[in-house]
Every structure is written in C-alpha cells, then in structure tokens.
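Subject: mismatched residue count in predicted assembly?

I count 434 residues in my input, but I want to confirm that the predicted structure covers every chain. Input:
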Amino acid sequence: MNVVTIERKVLEKNDAVAAQNRQTFQEHGIAVLNLVSSPGSGKTSLLERTLEHLNSTLRVAVIEGDVQTDLDAQRVARFSVPAVQIVTRGGCHLEANLVREALQNLELAGLQLLFIENVGNLVCPSNYDLGEAAKVVVVSTTEGDDKPLKYPAMFRNAAIMVINKIDLLPYVDSSADTLSENALRINPALRIFRTSCRTGEGIAQWCDWLRAQVPGR
Amino acid sequence: MNVVTIERKVLEKNDAVAAQNRQTFQEHGIAVLNLVSSPGSGKTSLLERTLEHLNSTLRVAVIEGDVQTDLDAQRVARFSVPAVQIVTRGGCHLEANLVREALQNLELAGLQLLFIENVGNLVCPSNYDLGEAAKVVVVSTTEGDDKPLKYPAMFRNAAIMVINKIDLLPYVDSSADTLSENALRINPALRIFRTSCRTGEGIAQWCDWLRAQVPGR
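Triage response: the counts match. Full output below for your records.
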C-alpha cells in the first residue's frame, strides 16, 4: 500500500508541474506534442523527416528524453533546430519537472512548435502529463497489430497515432487496417496518420496537420 | 528520497522471493529463462517457433506476462504446453512474487524448461530478478542498431541476446553486426543468436543451445 500511496503523490506533484508547463506553453503560443512509443518505432526518424519537410517554415524546438546517451539530440540538431537532451539515467519515462528544467535551455519567445520525444517505453510514460497539448503514439508496422490491445493505457491517453514504417508492410504479417481498428476500439477519437520515413510517404499530411496545431496560424 | 528508499525496499523484497523461486527451480532441475524486449520484437513468435522446433522433445512450460489480455498465452497454448498468463493491469514489469503465484498453476515435477515472457519493456524489467537462470534480451532488426547504447541496463543484465527478424535486414537501415558490436561494448560476455521466425533461420541453433541448458542432460 505504501508504494501505491507514494506513486499517487508522485503523480499529483507531476500533474501540478505539468499544469505550470502548460500555462507557460499557452502564454508563448507554442504547440507542444509528447511523442511516445516502443523503443525503435522511429520517433527520431519521424522528427528528422518532419524537420526536413517543414524546412524552417515553423520555428521548432525538440526536447529529447533518453535513458542514456545524447544520440537522438545529435541527430535532431543536424536540422538546425534547438535541441535539449534529458538523460534519465535509468528512469523509464519523462516527468514534468525534467521538462521544466529543460525549458530553461530553450528560447521560448517566438517558438511555435515543441516536440518532446519521450523515453522509448509503451507503458510508463502513459501516466505522466508533461504539459503537452497532446500525446502522439508512434507504432511501427513491424511491432504487430495487437499492440493497442496489449498496451491500452498509452492508446487511451494519446490523441494521435502515427503508424510508421508502412514501407515494411509487404514483408511483415501485420496489417495497418487491423492496427487502426484495434486502436480505435481502445480510443474511438484517435486521429491516425500513416508514414514511412524511408520513402517519405505520409509526411506531408502529418506536417499539414502539425502546421494547423500552431496557435494563431 | 522517499521514493528511492521505497524502491530499494521493493527490490530487496523482490530479490528475496526471486531467491526462493531459484531454489524451487533448482530442486526440480528446471532451466528457466526470462525473455525481455521492447514491445513487438517477437518474443511470442520466437516461443512459437521454439516450441514447434522442440516438438515435445523437452517438457516445456511458459509463463506469459502482459499489461493486458491473454493473447500471448493463447498463442503459446496452441503448442500443447502448459501456459499461465499473468496480467499486470498496467504494471510495467513482472516481479518475483507474481511468478511465484503463477507457479502454483504449473506441475513442476518433470518440467525441464520454463520460459517467462516478460512485459514488453526495455527499461523496467531489467531491475527485477524473477529467479531465472538467465535473462534473454530479444531485439528485432527493425528497432535500429543503437538500442544497446540507449538502453544499457537491459543488455548488461542479460546473458543472451537474440537478434530477431533478420529476414527484414535487406529492408531496414540497421546492421546486425553493428547491433552485436554495440551490445558487446555494453556486455562483452553476451552470447548472441540471430533468428527469423518467418523463415526459421537460426531457430535450430537457438534450440540446440536451449537443450544444453537443461540440467542433467
């Protein structure tokens, strides 16, 4: 029981800081998306293709969350956007206070879009509000089409699902349609995109939607 | 600090129960492997191909751990092996006491090999000893070859790595050699297998190794 009580306190404290973050984002008119997924679903590749496609038409920044290494921040920084790496040193998810600290390293004035790439983990990050406008769950076609049923909290708490690596569909036994159906069973309001970071398919539609999220545009 | 102290107590308690489990397994001469990975790396498919290949030449049982659903236990049970499903209801990893409870539903006498398929999560299960002889980390080629660097604890605590979905290597940008090198940088003692559950490549070598793990054979 002790552990459950402590966990509730941790979540309450997190929610309070997340509310502060959200207010900060709203004051600056920044659209903030929290990217969540299994390890290796292609969150960073999606960011790379997104930054390439947006091609500096929006002022974008990225906060990278990883258990270890700053490999992802390095990849993203190549696109000349401000990138801050949070290393959790074993921690399985980002929390709102880590994001709040990371914000001190970003110039918020004039920023329009902020991506927070969470630790690759389809379980723990689902409980933690970071102050984002929405969670975007990225699922690759190679993970199988049953993931929404097996990890329902993440799909319930996300507003958007990106089905990534659709170029690999001919070579795997899973179906993007079944994946979508399973996800909509868990969360009928989920908005769904299909992308391939290798071929570029679907990136334009995803970026059109991103542009529409920026306040005042 | 409170949370860290509680976590240490949870881990100590877990280790004590894991030691009991280990003693139980040793008394019955059962080789026990704890399969860990990202969601969708193919742990259950690997079990299916393994059970098919072993073709009842060993007495095998499976404990399935999932956040939700008994889909995996159903898949495994088709191969006429005893299968027990643990549903963690949101919990991000298996703990030794859950395995201990699951054991009450298995006939241990005569059992030779027990697979415990953990929750799909490359972070949290690394800290939890279940009483297994070894952790087997399964990584699919589609997850990218940087995973050992980004999630080092899991690769440090595993004794075996199975690189799965090698049939997809021609279609992805990651290299099995680089993945192996990165993993061996984290854990030079790691034993590595390469498998494809679609083509069956590597399954025989993996099963030969499994047979050699059974005590007294």
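The interface with chain B takes residues 2-3, 6, 10, 38-40, 66-69, 71, 90, 92, 119-124, 140, 142-144, 146-147, 149-153, 165, 167-168, 171-173, 198 of chain A (CB under 8 Å). Marking this ticket as 'not a bug'.
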